[in-house]
Design goal:
It comes from Thermogemmata fonticola. This protein is α/β, with parallel strands linked by helices. The chain contains 10 helices and 9 strands. The chain has a single domain, classed as NAD(P)-binding Rossmann-like Domain (Rossmann fold, 3-Layer(aba) Sandwich), CATH 3.40.50.720. The chain binds NADP nicotinamide-adenine-dinucleotide phosphate (NAP). The site of NADP nicotinamide-adenine-dinucleotide phosphate (NAP) has 30 residues, from helix 1 and helix 4.
């Protein structure tokens, strides 16, 4: 447990990796602002944490809307105290199709949430952190950001952009006392991957992933890629010619189409 509680803000805390990050931080003694769109899920987590003796603030917000992301930070600062750790974790994963046409609504949502959402979430905290000469900015990106994959073009592009944005930010903030960590996980068992029908190498559960991520943050890692063997596979895949990638991933493409159909069906049902 921490001696005096510090304040963390975690986006995407209503599910998966974000839920576990928030839960484990709270159990370590952090006061945690829980940010996502589904208020009832955040309240459920807040209750579980309160039952274990932890302190949270529920902040419903869409991080893809700049005013909402900024408001979430200001609420956390007013209610809990100055945030020292911001984890921009909220993200969406949808296939990118080409037939019958590119699903641009999904593409826009991924760029807005996964890239702009991260930028909005982190940017609002920078002036306070620089003024205090302390703080830690973290984005949950993905190993998918190292290689464009068929059926995942927009998701991979959103994560590649996050990686490069944070590289720049890290160098820019050198000497200010503000640390910047990029986290690139492989496959993690969460609602985002639960409909995948293909083999997911190195699949980890969300609680183990959160444990590793928090350890990397504590150690002040600049970029944390895990698990190492999936990172190696992804890095090596950069040398694999397109025709072989297409052959290896033809099944993956089919799955992308299937899961897009599922997404569209469930959206239609809403
Ligand atoms: N699972 C994996 O294999 C994997 C691998 C690498 C990287 N990642 C990354 O890890 C992060 C967490 O993913 P996950 O696997 O935990 O997925 P998840 O279980 O689907 O959770 C996604 C979270 O993001 C939130 N979210 C989505 N859009 C949002 C928006 N516009 N505003 C605020 N919150 C939003 C969701 O909450 P609401 O719906 O309540 O808003 C939810 O809490 C993502 O950035 C993902 O890309 C995941």
């Amino acid at each position: 447990m921490k001696d005096s509680p510090s304040v963390a803000l975690v986006t995407g805390a209503s599910s998966g990796i974000g839920w576990e990050l928030a839960r484990q931080l709270a159990l370590q003694g952090w006061k945690v602002a829980l940010v996502a769109r589904r208020k009832e899920r955040l309240e459920e987590l807040a209750q579980k944490i309160a039952a274990a003796g932890g302190q949270t603030l529920v902040v419903p917000a869409d991080v893809g809307q700049r005013e909402q992301a900024e408001r979430a930070y200001r609420m956390a600062r007013e209610e809990l105290g100055m945030p020292e750790l911001i984890i921009a974790n909220a993200g969406v994963g949808r296939p990118t199709l080409v037939e019958p046409a590119v699903n641009l609504d999904d593409v826009e949502e991924m760029i807005r949430t996964n890239l702009l959402g991260v930028i909005y979430t982190l940017s609002v905290a920078i002036p306070d952190m620089v003024a205090r000469r302390r703080g830690h900015l973290v984005a949950i990106s993905s190993l998918a950001g190292y290689r464009g994959l068929p059926g995942e073009s927009a998701y991979c592009a959103s994560k590649a952009a996050v990686n490069v944005y944070l590289d720049g930010l890290r160098i820019h903030l050198r000497g200010t006392g503000v640390r910047v960590t990029t986290v690139c996980p492989g496959f993690i068992k969460t609602p985002m991957t639960e409909n995948n029908t293909f083999y997911m190498p190195g699949l980890l559960d969300a609680s183990e992933a959160a444990r590793r991520i928090l350890r990397a943050i504590e150690r002040g890692k600049k970029v944390y890629n895990f698990p190492w063997h999936v990172h190696l596979m992804v890095k090596l895949s950069r040398w694999v010619p397109d025709r072989l990638m297409q052959r290896f991933l033809s099944k993956y493409n089919e799955d992308a189409r299937l899961s897009a159909t599922r997404t569209n069906l469930s959206n239609d049902a809403k």
